[in-house]
Amino acid sequence: xxxxxxxxxxxxxxxxxxxxxxxxxxxxxxxxxxxxxxxxxxxxxxxxxxxxxxxxxxxxxxxxxxxxxxxxxxxxxxxxxxxxxxxxxxxxxxxxxxxxxxxxxxxxxxxxxxxxxxxxxxxx
Length: 124
What we know:
With 124 residues, the chain is mainly α. The chain has 7 helices and no strands. The chain is globular and about 40 Å long.
């Protein structure tokens, strides 16, 4: 896919893929941290993948984004129309943009950038 094709993908598709990219990164981080059994890992994973957690993670990396990355994030953020009961609309919008950003980077083959931003978004 070209950069233009990726940028013009429906944001719902980008968010769907980005959710998977982030889920894999979180699971890898937790498994490598050897924090316990699967139940413990699943409980800890929830502290990373909720809309509230992703919104907070985005705030930690916002200043690190280049223009293209920020554009993809904003496009994803601006196309949310609902929010779960566990997050505000603003938090849900930021989380959706965050997912779109990671999908974009994945589709662009920017593995090193994904790792860099993920480490900054989730430093602990």
